[in-house]
Amino acid sequence: MDKLDERLLWHGDAHIDEATFNRIFGRVLAKLRGSDDFNPTRTAQHSGLDRAFLYAIERGEKGVSLFTLFRIASASKQSPAEIVRLLDRELGSETKTSP
Question: How many domains does the chain have?
């Protein structure tokens, strides 16, 4: 395997850059936002995170640490594993449609 640029990661046979990863993660959170348990105001209140920060994550402008992922999951009554599964699925869809 060739040395991978540390700003990229492999997903299947495709490379994904950090900006794309953040955008897709944000899209996953935005899709989850449809439930009352996962609205940004409630999630911000219960996670201790700023609502503007949560919106920046949804827009793909900010990335999150594992600690932040667990805070978001806990506040929104979602399993961190389920959020990661959804992210993995979205990454797979993105890489299949990319040239």
Answer: 1
Q: Is the dihedral of CA 81, 82, 83, 85 positive or negative?
A: positive
Give the integer Cα–Cα distance in Å for 25 and 87: 6
Assigned domain for 9 exists:
no
**Which CATH number characterizes residue 40's domain?**
1.10.260.40
CA–CA dist 68, 44 (Å, integer): 11
- Which residue range(s) make up the domain with 66? 27-97
Residue-wise pLDDT tens digits, 25-77: 999 988 887 666 677 788 888 889 999 999 999 999 999 999 999 999 998 88
Classify residue 8: in a domain, yes or no: no
CA 31, 49, 42, 69 dihedral sign is positive
Q: What residues contact residue 82 under an 8 Å CB cut-off, 6+ apart? A: 73
